[in-house]
Structures are given as structure tokens and as C-alpha cells.
């Protein structure tokens, strides 16, 4: 919840009064003024003669909506051209304040947004730590013994790291690293190490990802391909969906003529439990665009990653 200092409230009220004349009778209807002294202070405030001593202002509901003041129509809204560090993200559109606000208020909004992930993370850590303490107790452990005193907290931090992809977006990790380039041959980044979590048992699976694309007048920073893999692998996943998400993200961001993704992984849910097959590998692939339509490009891709 946003909190505004007295100076913020006074400035916003003064700006509103300068463009919207409020009749004294209207004020009297909204607020019962107990004595002449308070009314005189209010009149002095309206004339701009107020000192830093006692000041009378209308009640403010804290939601920063101009309609809350005498039901007047909003005079102006936040300039959409004013940039903010997270303003471009669709998920934050509902956070934009409505009504007349000052530049200092805009800074306050960004300041609060910067702290939101930290506060959310602390809350999630508390919840996960409590859950892990319950798990340890449920399996018969003594959570008060020295070796386990901080285990719930450490396990909670580890799980948040394993699933940090939920907090990341492809547009953020790309950071505009897409460049015009007259190159139309196949580009391949192979053997990108990958770690993920099986969504069925919450047990790790790990392996390598190879990605190839056919440029269409633009190329992407090579490290960004590995970062796209990281965004989608650091979640609860199944390998089939992971493969498709990597290919789809590259197609959407780069608009190439074609994309190919091949993932090879070992699933610990097949190694540590169940069938317990230590040497089993799972291989998935997705081809899009010309990589799917033309067998020549598929063969070239597979040859370049050592699978043909």
C-alpha cells in the first residue's frame, strides 16, 4: 500500500485547487467545521498563506483518485511517456496510479515496486521453511538436532533458486541483444547445460540443450540463447514442454526463418526411484519454420550437433 507524506498530500491538493475551484458551501456539506478558527485556517490555506504550523486539509482517501475530491472529473492523467524501470511489463499495468500525481510520487511508486520482489521473496521463504520443517518431522527427523537446525531455511532458498525462472521474462534477459546482420546460414549453439525440476515428483532432471536457427536479417547475442534455456528450465517442467517453449520463445523474439531445438536429459525420477534405470536418456526435439519444412536444414542441424 502506498503511503504519502504530508508534503505530497499538500502539493497534490494545492495542484488540484489551482485548477478546480471548490465552493465553501460544498466543503461545509462534506465536513462539519466546528469553529471559525478552523474555517479561517482553511481560507488562509486556499490563499496560499499557510505556514509550517497547523494546516487544515480535506480528508484524503489515500487512493490518489481525483474523482474522490468533490466528484470532479479528472483533469489530467499520468503521462504515458514517462519511463519507469518496470513500466513496460504487461503484468505491472494494473499498478499504474490513476489521477494527478507529482514527479516525486512517480519516484515513490518505482521505489515501492523495487521493494515488492524482496518482500514477496521473504514471505515465500518463510512459507517454504515452515513446509520443509514439517516435511523433516513427517519423515521422522528431529529438526532440533544440530545438523538440521538451518536445513529448512537452506532448502527453501535452494528451491527458490531452482524455480527462479518463474520470476524471469524472455524480454528481460534478451535486453535488446538482437542485431541487424546480413547472414542467412544456420547458427547453432550446442551442448548448453540445463538443470530443471520434474513437475511430477519435484526431483531434478538435467542434460544438454542444442539450439539452431536460420536468420532472417537479424541475429541474437549467443549468450542470450543460453539465458532463454535458463528461463524455462528453472521451473517445474516436463521435458517435452521445455523443448517447445525454448523453440517458441526464439521464434517469437527473433522471427527467424526456422528454429530447431534438441534436448537430451537424465531424469532422476527414473534413476533414484521407480524403474531405477541409471543409463536411460530422454531425447526430445522441436523443429519450426523451414527447419521443419526442409529436410536439408534438419540434416545440417543434426550433423552440426553430432547427431547425424
UniProtKB/TrEMBL annotation:
PROSITE patterns: GTP_CYCLOHYDROL_1_2
Catalyzed reaction equations: GTP + H2O = 7,8-dihydroneopterin 3'-triphosphate + formate + H(+)
Signal peptide: none
Top class in the EC scheme: hydrolase
Positions of the GTP cyclohydrolase I domain: 129-305
Alphabetical GO biological process terms: tetrahydrobiopterin biosynthetic process; tetrahydrofolate biosynthetic process
InterPro entries registered for this protein in UniProt: GTP-CH-I_C/QueF, GTP-CH-I_N, GTP_CycHdrlase_I, GTP_CycHdrlase_I_CS, GTP_CycHdrlase_I_dom
Region named Disordered: 75-96
Keyword check for Hydrolase: yes
Pathway: Cofactor biosynthesis; 7,8-dihydroneopterin triphosphate biosynthesis; 7,8-dihydroneopterin triphosphate from GTP: step 1/1
UniProt keyword annotations, A-Z: GTP-binding, Hydrolase, Nucleotide-binding, Tetrahydrobiopterin biosynthesis
Biased composition (Polar residues): 77-92
EC number per UniProt: 3.5.4.16
GO cellular component: a single term: cytoplasm
Any GO molecular function: GTP binding
PANTHER family linked: GTP CYCLOHYDROLASE 1, GTP CYCLOHYDROLASE I
NCBIfam families xref list: folE (TIGR00063), PRK09347.1-2 (NF006825), PRK09347.1-3 (NF006826)
Record-stated family: Belongs to the GTP cyclohydrolase I family.
Name of the featured protein: GTP cyclohydrolase 1
UniProt lineage: Eukaryota, Metazoa, Spiralia, Lophotrochozoa, Platyhelminthes
Amino acid at each position: 500500500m502506498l503511503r504519502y507524506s504530508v508534503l505530497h498530500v499538500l502539493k497534490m491538493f494545492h495542484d488540484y485547487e489551482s485548477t478546480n475551484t471548490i465552493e465553501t458551501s460544498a466543503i461545509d456539506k462534506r465536513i462539519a467545521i466546528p469553529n471559525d478558527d478552523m474555517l479561517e485556517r482553511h481560507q488562509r490555506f486556499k490563499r496560499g498563506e499557510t505556514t509550517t504550523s497547523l494546516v487544515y486539509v480535506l480528508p484524503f482517501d489515500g487512493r490518489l483518485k481525483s474523482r474522490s475530491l468533490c466528484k470532479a472529473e479528472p483533469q489530467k492523467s499520468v503521462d504515458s511517456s514517462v519511463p519507469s524501470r518496470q513500466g513496460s511489463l504487461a503484468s505491472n499495468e494494473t499498478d499504474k496510479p490513476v489521477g494527478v500525481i507529482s514527479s516525486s510520487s512517480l519516484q515513490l511508486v518505482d521505489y515501492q515496486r523495487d521493494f515488492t520482489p524482496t518482500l514477496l521473496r521473504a514471505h515465500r521463504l518463510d512459507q517454504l521453511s515452515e513446509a520443509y520443517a514439517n516435511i523433516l518431522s513427517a519423515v521422522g527427523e528431529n529438526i532440533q538436532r544440530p545438523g538440521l537446525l538451518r536445513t529448512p531455511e537452506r532448502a527453501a532458498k535452494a528451491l527458490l533458486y531452482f524455480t527462479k525462472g518463474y520470476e524471469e521474462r524472455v524480454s528481460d534477459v534478451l535486453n535488446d541483444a538482437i542485431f541487424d546482420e546480413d547472414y542467412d546460414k544456420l547458427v547453432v549453439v550446442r551442448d548448453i547445460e540445463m538443470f530443471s525440476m520434474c513437475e511430477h515428483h519435484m526431483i531434478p532432471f538435467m542434460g544438454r540443450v542444442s539450439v539452431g536457427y536460420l536468420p532472417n536479417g537479424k541475429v541474437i547475442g549467443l549468450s542470450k540463447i543460453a539465458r532463454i534455456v535458463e528461463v524455462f528450465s528453472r521451473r517445474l517442467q516436463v521435458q517435452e514442454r521445455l523443448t517447445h517453449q525454448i523453440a517458441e520463445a526464439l521464434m517469437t523474439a527473433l522471427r527467424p526463418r526456422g528454429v530447431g531445438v534438441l534436448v537430451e536429459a537424465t531424469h532422476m525420477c527414473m534413476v533414484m526411484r521407480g524403474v531405477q534405470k541409471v543409463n536411460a536418456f530422454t531425447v526430445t526435439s522441436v523443429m519450426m519454420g523451414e527447419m521443419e519444412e526442409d529436410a536439408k536444414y534438419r540434416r545440417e542441424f543434426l550433423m552440426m550437433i553430432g547427431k547425424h
